[in-house]
Structure formats: structure tokens, C-alpha cells
Amino acid sequence: MFLHYFSKKHQARKSAKELLESAERVRLYRGDLLSAEAIAVQLDLEKKLSQQLSEKSFDAKGIDEALAELHHALVKNGGKVYPISFLGDIVEMIVMAVIVAGAVKGLLLMPFKIPTNSMWPTYYGKTAVVRSPEAPAPSLGQRVWHKITDWSSTYLINAEASGEVKIPLEFIGYNHRAKEYRVRQPSRGSNLQEIVVGNTLQSFSVPAEFNFDAVLLRTFFPDFAEMPLQRQDGERWEKVIAKAMAENRIVESPSGTVLLTGKKVKEGQRIFNFDVLTGDMVFANRIIYHFVNPEAGDAIIFRTHRIPGLSDRFGNPSQNYYIKRLAGLPGDELFVDDGKLYRNGKLVTSPEPMALNCQRAISRGYYGYLADLGNQPYAAPLTVPYKVTQGFYTLGDNSANSFDSRGWGEVPPEDVVGKPLFILHPFSPRWGWAK
User: Fold this and answer.
1) What angle do CA 120, 123, 128 make, to 5 degrees?
2) Is the CATH code 2.10.109.10 the one for domain 282-433?
3) Which of 175, 180, 184, 201 is nearest to 244 (CA)?
4) What confidence tens digit (pLDDT) does each residue in 120-144 have?
5) Which sequence spans correspond to the domains of the chain?
6) Which end of the chain has less neighbouring CB within 10 Å, N or C?
7) pTM of the full predicted structure?
8) Torsion angle of alpha carbons 192, 146, 156, 236, nearest 10°?
9) End-to-end CA distance of the chain
């Protein structure tokens, strides 16, 4: 009896320790993607479990309940970090070994995961490689290899019913009395995507912060996806929807407003065939700006908690780290004309990503600069010359898909933590010194 009690106590403490380590890993890897509320809830549950462990009397039931509560919170917050697959664990061990060996205990370098595609194609956030549904799926060996080299995951989605594939839309307003629509977006905090097949609404899970609209566009409207438009997928979807409205292919259904794709499938037939590549992991040089000042053209990593335009709808400060291109220092005058960025009246010609944007080097993925992001409360648009005040004015290299100083204003200089130094992963042509 005593041995059984001792064994159960030992196992419970071991499980609790492992779960608390997983919770710390989730906060480390995904803290910049989670809401302040989600992090606070997780921290409370970690504290509750730690308190259960510190009690003198062993409360098996209390520890089990605390374990279960924290586990459910980590499932919501963990993404690919928790629960983690065996293969993912191996890859993480390899990457983390390099990080620990090269980061000098984090004092000089900081590992940073690029969260979004705002700096594409210089740095990659989550991107998709989309194949035709009829194309062969990658073999198991290919998936393993790409998991190691690209940190990618393959998604094969089959139809749950027979009939025409329809894309759910949502109404966003009127433009000269004409209705405007966009692809229906998941609810806040959800990673469930929806598609309609026949009269069946089908949902499936994709990674959080992943732009599934790109998969829809390249699966069902590949010709539109190739259009070299400055606002990229946003403008391509506008053309897709305008054409569908002219052809009466936007209709009401039991699932709401849908766009008829014309693609008919049978139950069990594949409708999506794509890979998701996670964002670049980079080393950020944390010490450089203690000795030199940031220069225009630098890619900088900064905290966002003191940028009012990035607070949530409840006024809670953002807890994320962002990476953007430093376009203007205090006193600089910036202006965008015909996709070109001018600083103090002169066309920007360096560094290379900014020069390529000014040239609209579409073949290399640089589509040029847009002057504004629409009507934002803290906007600092470049439709007219804008003089930078006391902060830093930042732009994303992927101007059409970057929420930056055009939408939320300047970055406090003291919140800059460093600049990208080295792209550590994936092992792709981008691997190496950062631009």
C-alpha cells in the first residue's frame, strides 16, 4: 500500500513537472502570437499546479484536476508546440541545440520566429505551397525531409459530401450601391476554416495566423493568382468576386452567402492539397544598438506594448514582437508616389529589398510600396509628405500585407531590441546572413 502511494505521488509530481516545462515552452515560442488574456489564464493555471505540488499533504485529486485544466489550456495555446509530435520533438531538439550553443545564453542573441508575412519575400512567415487537388501527395519520405528542411506540414482535405464546392463569403459594405464581399474569416482565436460542398458545411483545422485565403485562390482560381497586382491577393480576390457577381455566381444558401466555384466533387474526393511552411527562425543581434544607432533601411525587431494602435479592443497593450524595415528616422520626410518611396525628396535606393520595392521587381516578389492602409485611428499615411517626429517610421517589405506605421504610427526608439542577424531555419536558400 505504501509503495503504491509513493509510486503514484512520484508519477504525479513527474507529470506536473513535465507539464510546467511544456507551459514555459509554449510561452517562449508562442507568446508573441497569444492574447494577453490567454497568457494570463495559462499563468494562473501554472501557479495553481505549482501550489498543489508545494502542499505538504499529497492531494492526488487536486493535482489531477490542476493537470487537466492546464493541459486543456495548453492545447488551446500550444499550436504546433503542444502537444508535440515525436518528429517535431527531434527537429526542435536539433534547432534548440544550435540556439543554446550559439546564443551565448541569450545575452547577445535572441531566437525570433517570424510570425507573419509582412516582410515577405525577405523573411517568411507562414506560407503555403499549393498543389492541384488531383496532383500526387508527397510521400512519407518527402514529408519527413521537408519537415526537417522547411518545417512544413502537408494538408490533404477530402470532401465530406458530394456536390459543388462553394466558398463562404461575408458582406462588408457597399461601393456605389454595389455590394462588396470577402472570404468569410474564422472567428477571433479560431483556426477552423470552412467550405461548403453541396449543402454540407465542412470545417477543418489549419495553423493559427495562417492565411487560408491564399490556398482558396490558388486552388480554385489559379489564373487570378498569377496576376501581378500591386495589392496582391487582396486585389486578386476583388477581381474574382467582381467576376463572380457579374456571372451571378454569388448566391444565398443555408450556410449563408457563398461563391460558386464550378468545381464538383464526390464524397471522399480530395478538394485541397497543400503544404504549410512555418515562419523563418532568426537570430536577432541584441547588442548592436547599444553601440550604434539604428539606420534607415535596417530591419529592426521591437516590442509593441507602447504602440496604442496595436492595443486590443479592450485597450490591453500588445505583447508581441514585430519585425519591420526602418524607413524613416526623426526629422525625415517620407512620401510614396507610384509605388516608390522617397526619403527627404530622394528616391530610396538601398538596402536591396527597399530598392527592389521601388523598382517594383515583381519577378522577385517585390510589388512596390502602398501609401496608406485605409482609415486607421493612429495612421500616419504617406499619401502626402509625412515628417517623422520623435519615433521610428517602419514599413513592411510586403507592403500590401503589412500592418505598419502607415496604420499605427511610429515606434518608440527605446523599444527596439535588435536586428536580424542570421536565418537559422528552415534550411532553404534563405538560410544564412539576414538582409
Assistant:
1) 60
2) yes
3) 180
4) 999 998 889 999 999 999 999 988 8
5) 2-77, 157-264, 282-433
6) N
7) 0.67
8) 70
9) 64
